[in-house]
Amino acid sequence: MMVQTRKQQTFLVTGGTGFLGSHVAVDLLSRGHRVLVLARGRSNSSASQRMEQLLNWFGIRKDQRMDLKILQGDLNRPGLGLDPRDARVVSRETDETVHCASDTSFSPDRREQVERTNILGLENLLDVVRESPCRALHLVSTAYVAGKSRGLCAEDFGQVREFHNVYEETKFRAEKIAAEHCAVNRITLYVYRPSIVYGNSTTGRTTLFKALYYPIRTLHFFQKLYTRDILENGGKKARDMQVLLGGNGVLHLPVRIQSSDECGLNLIPVDHFVEAFMAIRRGCPEGGVFHIVNPRSTTISRLADYTRRFFQLEGVRAVEPDEFLKQPRNGLELLFDSYIRYYGPYMQDRRIFENSRTSAILAGQNISCPEFSYQVFATCMRYAVETDWGRQL
Ligand SMILES: NC(=O)c1ccc[n+]([C@@H]2O[C@H](COP(=O)([O-])OP(=O)(O)OC[C@H]3O[C@@H](n4cnc5c(N)ncnc54)[C@H](OP(=O)(O)O)[C@@H]3O)[C@@H](O)[C@H]2O)c1
User: Fold this and answer.
1) Which of 34, 134, 246, 248 has the most other CB atoms within 10 Å of its CB?
2) Contacts of 190 (CB under 8 A, 6+ apart)
């Protein structure tokens, strides 16, 4: 009797060296799929060497890597810069494409590069997979395509006219391009819109220390800088910034962060992102737009509280905007704000990301977003400090 086995699915994953792309690629691999990973080389390491390092970080044994093929390439080059043999593999074997690669810079100075990667890069990718048997495109977008919209942000392709930065704008445009391409070529499109993704909720492990991490990392940097100044160099810099070290070893950093209790960061751990991604793919064969978000945002006040507790700090707190009218920003606050200038709008986020479609799919598979408790925060920060914010990964 012939045993019918299901054909192994082949996924092309872009952004394989990135935070979300690597997690998705590894998860697909663990589910028995074949994975073609597009990755760039760097001047001192090839795409393969970079991916090998990451696979070691994930603890993937050599024998578990058999179904992974690394394709050295670059989205910004026609044909993705693939060598002809790799291009043939992609065009013959790709069943589904997961597009995670992106330029995630918010800086207006990088507009040209961000547009090139997020728009032209996507078009190059679509040109390549057009020739393949690919029947599903999974586009990893962001909840922040909502731009400067207020209130409830719908889980659909809405119209948005204003954005905080080039990243949001190009991600919004990319969704439209993908939608048009998929409609014309009869490809099922999944648009995943995660909010802010942090490390693993159980282990704290991450390879990316931006977004949630960046303002906290800045405060930790101030803590080290001024503690050293006080203990080793007479403390003049600290005095100039009104930074004091208490007898109990607790540092007073006078940093007020503009926000209010109606605002907050929408945070999801990477394990939830991957679990939700897989559940949506499995549970929704028709595709669509999916907000992968936390039903509860975390206020800046709570985040400041967690930060003070974990790092043994005083003085860091969230305040209403009118506080700054009564008492203008001090030197340290001006410095802090200049470090986090691109994140400012996210500290005052009042939006709610509607997610009834996604939550129905996730509820049907018993999946819920872990709470961003102090314990989860502390686990993530412990990992961040242990790895010197990724420098010692
Ligand atoms: N992390 C979050 O909080 C978050 C939240 C919402 C949405 N997202 C979305 O999730 C996706 C993945 O983001 P991430 O957090 O994983 O960012 P990431 O760690 O910075 O990864 C970005 C990936 O894109 C690759 N890439 C950039 N330009 C490329 C090019 N020209 N050719 C080939 N690859 C290129 C990078 O390669 P190199 O390693 O060579 O630079 C890297 O692998 C993005 O689409 C982002 O918009 C992320």
Assistant:
1) 134
2) 136, 137, 138, 139, 280, 281, 284, 287, 288, 290
CA 16 to centroid of ligand 1, rounded, Å: 8
Ligand 1 geometric centre to CA of 198 (Å): 14
Of 277, 266, 35, the closest CA to residue 139 belongs to: 277
Cβ of 196 below 6 Å from ligand 1: yes
**Nearest-atom index, ligand 1, CA of 211:** 3
For ligand 1, pick from 17, 24, 82, 102 the residue to mutate: most ligand atoms within 8 Å of CB.
Answer: 102
pTM exceeding the 0.85 threshold for the entire prediction:
yes
Q: What is the pLDDT of residues 339-384, one digit of tens each?
A: 999 888 888 888 899 999 999 999 999 999 999 999 999 999 999 9
CA distance 325 to 361: 46
CA distance 308 to 320: 19
CATH architecture of 10-194: 3-Layer(aba) Sandwich (3.40)
CATH 3.40.50.720 in the chain: give the residue spans: 10-194
Give, in order, the Cα–Cα distances in Å from 141 to each of 73, 81, 261, 299.
21, 23, 27, 24
Residue nearest to atom 18 of ligand 1 (CA): 18
